[in-house]
């Protein structure tokens, strides 16, 4: 190949060298005959492999645990733990948490051994002694190629698994963003309306109580006009946090729009809902917020809220729209009768 042709090759291909070059790969040779170990090592030495040696099955397993070889060339018949047993242990622990995939070439001195028998022993390949070194070299190269392909496949699977996890994480983030009000961190109106339909149907199916609460911050426009919109945002966040902390974990709280919040209280009968609303109203009334003027002066700001609540089952509330209208009408009754109070829809 000319220098010009070499430069036109992709950089990765230039670095990788010839496709069949497996120099530097580790080959574990296992045989109770030191002369046979030496014979195999010398026959494979021209290929540039790194060799590890073991004289029995126990030593072989220790060598595998110490450092995963790329290939095992192993005698079948050895004292103590034989090649077949070691092979089965290696294959039984081929998962990522174990040894991983390590191809095994078994060597046998039994001339009658056939290919099927050799593979049935659990090996990826086999050779009958005495064997030609050219054949051994070809089998080793073939198994190392298989190992390289298996490792590449495993790496691709890891990358795909990571990509899938990342995709799922981003999908969950987008889902959360689509459901969340950016300012307060509460659920938004769209998600609330989806859940309202689900909870209403569940309440109707099981004849279980479901209360809907609408909350409005009293004189919020005055707060914005007096102290500015940034402080108004702080007020919205404080009310959202207070209401969320006061309600139960199972209750669904959302920002409905502007200074208005809405909540679903599953399994909350009228009196339960009324007590919950009073706790929220009192918690908001106890809030102490401090406004800081541009000149450094500060002023304490107190808040109140009005709440309207309606509960199903009720004869006059046969759908979600009717439930919403009843809670909204109750809210305006609370505001119209002096604010900082809870008004409950009466069926």
UniProtKB/TrEMBL annotation:
SMART domains registered for this protein in UniProt: GGDEF, REC
Domain Response regulatory: 26-144
The keyword Coiled coil is annotated on this UniProt entry: yes
Modified residue annotations for 4-aspartylphosphate: 75
SUPFAM superfamilies attached to this UniProt entry: CheY-like, Nucleotide cyclase
Transmembrane segments: none
GO molecular function annotation: diguanylate cyclase activity
The reaction(s) this protein catalyses: 2 GTP = 3',3'-c-di-GMP + 2 diphosphate
Entry's Gene Ontology cellular component terms: plasma membrane
A Pfam family the protein falls into: Response_reg
Region (Disordered): 1-25
This protein's record includes keyword Glycoprotein: no
PANTHER family for the chain: DIGUANYLATE CYCLASE DGCM-RELATED (PTHR45138:SF9), REGULATORY COMPONENTS OF SENSORY TRANSDUCTION SYSTEM (PTHR45138)
Protein name per Swiss-Prot or TrEMBL: diguanylate cyclase
Native source organism of the sequence: Corallococcus carmarthensis
Organism ancestry: Bacteria, Pseudomonadati, Myxococcota, Myxococcia, Myxococcales
